[in-house]
């Protein structure tokens, strides 16, 4: 029997009483899946997982995806995206050094955006006894439900464009600005035209209905939304700014303080997330991420 302990007001729970390295019986898996959809973000402490075990556990939820950034995939398990600030002996980044700089939900620019992401913490930076590199999550369902009725009506049938090209350009500009301020130096691999063409821009609803819980949630994010479809640029920017400020109000947020051995999963149809870059080498952070394919946002 698992134990589920709620951590945030609207989202976030710790699940204990389970060893994810072992095959799970159907009943335990069903309890975990229920806790996941009820809490939007769940985590398990003190897990000892090989990449194959992480893949096997997350595969129980559906088909695993392979990220367009080939250079950051784990060679033996391409379903795993390495997120890390560590460099190999030749000075090359072993994974993505800059994942999650802006609020986003994973692969929201794809026709079938990720349903679930699972991040396994192998190494966590610590300074003066305090873990660094927190990840924050905002509940887009709780945020939608708290909107004034007038705003709900205004956005009910709007669409927004999610664009990986837009994200890449925005992220690169932020990297250059950070570097100019004397911050982290990030190795960014240029994607080929073929890679970029595999993730074309998509028009998607501003309000999406969760495929499992049927709750409505806001489906705009500052990383991937380039603009509101069919809206004048100024109006689009103003409305998006308003929605972003609303979603990230403190009451909708759960912030996770990582420990090595944490396996944390979030529901991309119900939350957005953002990483914190308050650490740098020689402090090391190594995470393995798997994502499960979802269904088109409707
Ligand atoms: C991500 O955006 O998937 C990574 C979050 C993190 O590294 O904290």
Question: How would you explain this protein's 3D organization?
Answer:
With 298 residues, this protein is α+β, with helices and mostly antiparallel strands. The protein has helices spanning 26-39, 51-59, 140-145, 149-155, 164-180, 193-197, 233-247; strands at residues 3-6, 13-16, 41-44, 73-74, 77-84, 114-123, 126-127, 130-131, 135-139, 159-162, 202-205, 207-209, 216-218, 225-228, 253-256, 263-267, 271-275, 286-293. An eight-stranded mixed sheet has the order 1-2-3-16-6-18-5-4, covered by helices on one side. Strands 15-9-17 form a three-stranded antiparallel sheet. The two termini are 35 Å apart. The mean pLDDT is 95. Bound molecules: succinic acid. Residues 83, 99-100, 135, 273, 275, 287, 289 line the site of succinic acid.
* N- and C-termini, Cα separation: 35 Å
The number of E-state strands comes to 18
**What is the N-to-C succession of helices and strands?**
EEHEHEEEEEEHHEHHEEEEHEEEE
Integer average pLDDT: 95
The parts where pLDDT drops under 50 for at least 5 residues are none
Number of helical stretches of at least 4 residues: 7
Gyration radius, in Å: 19 Å
For the sheet with most strands, the description reads: 8 strands, mixed
Give the helix/strand class: alpha+beta
The unique ligands bound to this protein are: succinic acid
**Percent of residues in beta strands:** 25-35%
**3D shape:** globular
The spatial strand order of the largest sheet comes to: 1-2-3-16-6-18-5-4
In helices, the fraction of residues equals 10-25%
